[in-house]
Amino acid sequence: MSKRVGAPGSGISRRDFVKASGLGGTLALAGCTAPGDPQESVDTSTETSASQTGGDLPSTSPPEIVNVDEQGGEVTLSSVPAQHHAHPGESMGGPVELPQVWAFKADDGDPSVPGPILRTTEGEDMEVTLDNTNGMRPHTVHFHAVSKKWEDDGVPTTTGVRVDPGEKHTYTIPADVPGTHLYHCHYQTPRHLDMGMYGIFRVDPKGYEPADKEYFLSFKEWDSRLNRQMAGMDATYDPRNRRPDTFTVNGKSAPRTLHPEDGSPIIVEQGDTVRLHMLNAGYMDHPMHIHNHRFQVTHKDGGEIPEVARHEQDVCSIPPAGRRTVEFTADADPGIYLMHCHKVNHVMNGSAYPGGMLTGVVYKEAMQTDIFKQLMEYAGYEG
């Protein structure tokens, strides 16, 4: 099967992307000399030193979707120290890097930030094994929304269950609340969550009917002092005085968010029904705005909103740990339209604008344009 491109979900195949854009192999040097406004540059001394101190840590990959049903209801999660390149290029205030994260990986998959998207079906139980045999510090896993047994809640101070280095522990997680949920480490949460130990947990209701295009998006702001401190750099993090300086969509900062394979563009075709499952894994509220499309919020924190209570809107505010599912029809003039946090200082890389917590709704019909090719250069797409 051809590799799919776009945000995690039901994007188009890489073959169709290359055919639609004509960019296969045409941008071999993209990202090295991508243009940018010299008046909007950012001091990259921190990012440069971060990349020089990465050592032998692996780099993260984009989050994968793990269909737990197809694995007999079982999945193993482990945490891997890694380097995270939120935007590795030099355009638009880059590079933006987190020199150390604690990335979740599922089974034998690649480590990612956010962690793998765990997908199951209503009525199924998941056996989630947290494998900390090669770990360096204690961890747990807490799953939001679902009704589980007390000892499976993932909070060490109230359950007495903590997974220390060298140990494994299996949680039984019932899929009894359909919707889009959050999972994360609940040991020393202010640090472990900010080191990247979070992901989306999706429970499809029985008889679920997917949209034409369906994507998963997680948003997060970071105080990179913590990541630099954990990498042994000269930085001191204070969780009581948090100062976010990195803003991401599925772990990437714009323009890397628009990269078809490493980022999360929302790729659509004219007339598609589009469904976005969104999570805020940060500590701040993020009002997400989609240009030129009116949508309805259909689900909130796993609860379905009755049709009579829905309305058309173009900004959806998501609180910390909040989840929203929105639906719209791709009925605009085929083009490229931004989706971004409307706290506009979150749409920056340092002092460079635009950047940060921004991606785009990209119509397949617009991929042959010069502006799309330029955006791919900014994003560092090499074809």
UniProtKB/TrEMBL annotation:
Annotated keywords: Copper, Metal-binding, Oxidoreductase
Span list, region Disordered: 27-67, 235-265
CDD domains: CuRO_D2_2dMcoN_like
Residue ranges annotated for the Plastocyanin-like domain, each copy included: 112-206, 245-352
InterPro entries reported in the protein's UniProt record: Cu-oxidase-like_N, Cu-oxidase_C, Cu-oxidase_fam, Cupredoxin, TAT_signal, TAT_signal_bac_arc
Biased segments, Polar residues type: 41-54
Start-end of Low complexity biased regions: 27-36
Oxidoreductase keyword on record: yes
Single GO MF descriptor: oxidoreductase activity
Annotated SUPFAM superfamilies: Cupredoxins (SSF49503)
Protein name: Multicopper oxidase domain-containing protein
Naturally occurring in which organism (per UniProt): Haloarcula rubra
